[in-house]
Each structure stands twice: as C-alpha cells, then as structure tokens.
Design brief:
The protein is an alpha+beta fold. Helix content is 32%, strand content 20%. The protein has 13 helices and twelve strands. β11 (251-259) and β12 (266-267) form a beta hairpin. The chain starts with 7 loop residues before the first strand and ends with a helix.
Length: 341
C-alpha cells in the first residue's frame, strides 16, 4: 500500500479565507477539489504540499448558472454534473462529449471541471512510483535534471492530458482567478503554456474559481478522443472543434484545438485558415486535417507509438469536421473506440 505523506488539511468557509491561506505559503500549499489527480500524485511523491486547502466546503464553487448571455461553471462542479446538465449539453455538446469521456463514472463523480482544467501533465517516466523513478535517477519534472523522453531537451516534455481544456479553448471560454490581492479573468487559451513543468500561467497564490462560457448560440462543437480502451484511459490524441456556419453552410468562425500532442492544448491556426469562409466539402476537410497533422508533434512519453498518434490526428480532425458538417458519425466513433482493442 502506498501511503500519503503527512500534510495539514484546511477547510475554509469562504473563497477569501481559502485565498488568504494559499497566500501564506503558496509554494508549499496546494488546492484540493475532487482529489483524483492530487491524491495519487501525493502518494507517488510527485507533489508533496505541506498544506492542502480543500475547496469542497465552498458551495459557491459548486453550481452552474447563467452569466449574462453565457454560462458560468463553478470550479468544483463535478464532471458528472457537467454531463447531466441539460442546458450545458444543449449549448456546448462538445464539452458534454469531453466531460463524458473522462475516466470512469466513479472518477467523474469525484473529479471536477476545475481539476480537469488544471490536470498535471503526464509522462511515461514521471507517472511511476517514487522507487521506480529513483531507480532511473528521476527526471527534471521532479527531483532530477534530465528529460528522459529527449535527453538533450532543455525543458520538460510531459504531455497535457486534460479532456475539457482543448474543448473549452475551442469554445472561447475563460476562467476567473482569485487571490488575496484581487482577481482576474483570462482566456483558457492563455491559461496554458507549452512547458511540462510550468504548464499553467495561473500563479501559485491564485484559485481557479469559475469557468465562463460565452454566448454559444449558433455554434456547433464536438470532441474526438483517441485512447487505448473505450473507457477510463487518458487521451493520447484528441481534437476539439467549435464552429459557426452560415445558412449556406460556409464557415463563418471556427477553432480547432488538439489535445495530448504537446504540453498544452495546441491550436491550429493553419487548419482554421483553410476552413474560414468555405463550405465543409471533403476536399476542404482534408486540407484542414493535413494542416492540423503538420502542427501536431507528439513525443514518446505516453501510450502507443508517437508516429501512429500523429497520423491519427488527421483522422480525429476529419471526423470532427464531418460531425460539424452534420454527418452521421456514430459508426466512426465506434470504430475509433475499437482502435486499441
């Protein structure tokens, strides 16, 4: 049995109290929501905070409500609650698809939207027990000074494996961050950076309290995920697409974001430019899929061979765009779920 290290647990009554505790020693304090990421990491000695501040007691963070002409999702809303919310599914079906494909029902009952957004980056050499990592002399993400994925790399290449972040970025969502010194709102696209260690731009003293969705009237969205098993596994490649089409079927606006092929969700402006103002014909979709394929640079740090993962980006984007077009893609989804079986 792998046991948790010693730590002090604090249960604040207000967001302000949580922010004040976090501000005291931000480098030694971590936030706990569902715990599906933090607790295993603590057991493996990947993260060892001296203080853990639980956000569970803060009822204000656990609801979904309208905000102007958009929607606001509290950080501790569980992924199960996201999946079950009818208004959210109607406004953003892609987010519903992404949340519904995270882990298992039991883990979705505990895992939260805020926790999935801030999910620690993953790597074959990092996501092992302390003893295993010690035996190979650790890596630069924790306790070492080398990236075992690419030994000459000056930075960590651990991969972003969150399902909801690529979709929220494609939807143009933003997050509200609160600290003892104030609050700020940043786009999900600006919440991440391509660094396996410092993958978030959220400061250590800030709490992600809310996800904000804009008015999505007229927008279509979808999320496609590649994983070894049809349930449970983290993505090894994914594609999130949100688009607004004209009455004639031309693309008025579109965002294409790839997941699990970098240390952050990766937008593909080249794919978007090939789609803007054009109808989603098979030829146009193929051009965009090729552009997305070109930008994807997966590393050998997770399941499947990296060359095949990169090739599958083309298939993921193709199927996503066909679904946006209105095609019946149920058979394609079933085929994808069987890829690793």
């Amino acid at each position: 049995m792998i046991r948790l290290p010693d730590f002090e647990l604090r249960r604040p009554r207000t967001i302000e109290e949580a922010a004040a505790w976090l501000a005291t020693t931000p480098s030694e304090t971590m936030l706990l929501a569902g715990g599906t990421d933090l607790v295993p990491n603590m057991k493996r000695r990947q993260q060892m905070p001296k203080t853990v501040v639980s956000l569970r007691p803060l009822a204000a963070l656990g609801r979904i409500h309208r905000r102007g002409d958009g929607l606001a999702i509290g950080a501790t809303v569980t992924l199960t609650e996201v999946v079950r919310d009818a208004s959210l599914r109607a406004a953003a079906p892609g987010l519903w698809q992404a949340a519904a494909q995270v882990a298992t029902p039991q883990l979705r009952n505990m895992g939260t939207i805020g926790g999935n957004l801030c999910l620690d980056t993953r790597c074959t050499y990092y996501d092992q027990s302390y003893e295993w990592r010690k035996a190979i002399n650790f890596c630069m993400k924790k306790d070492g000074d080398i990236c075992w994925v690419a030994t000459s790399s000056p930075k960590c290449l651990a991969v972003s494996s969150t399902d909801t972040a690529p979709m929220l970025q494609a939807l143009g969502a933003s997050v509200r961050l609160v600290s003892a010194s104030g609050e700020r709102t940043v786009g999900v696209a600006d919440l991440f950076q391509n660094d396996g260690i410092h993958y978030l731009t959220r400061r250590p003293d800030e709490i992600l309290v809310e996800v904000q969705l804009p008015n999505l009237a007229g927008w279509r969205s979808t999320y496609w995920k590649l994983r070894r098993r049809g349930s449970f596994d983290f993505p090894v490649a994914s594609a999130a697409v949100a688009a607004r089409l004209s009455g004639a079927g031309e693309v008025e606006a579109i965002r294409v974001v790839l997941g699990a092929v970098a240390s952050r969700p990766l937008a593909s402006p080249a794919a978007e430019s090939r789609l803007a103002g054009r109808r989603l014909t098979d030829e146009v979709i193929a051009e965009a899929a090729d552009a997305a394929y070109a930008v994807a640079k997966p590393m050998d740090n997770t399941d499947y061979e990296l060359v095949w993962r990169k090739k599958m980006v083309r298939a993921l984007v193709t199927n996503a765009l066909r679904e946006i077009r209105g095609d019946d893609v149920r058979q394609a989804r079933l085929s994808l779920a069987r890829q690793g079986l």
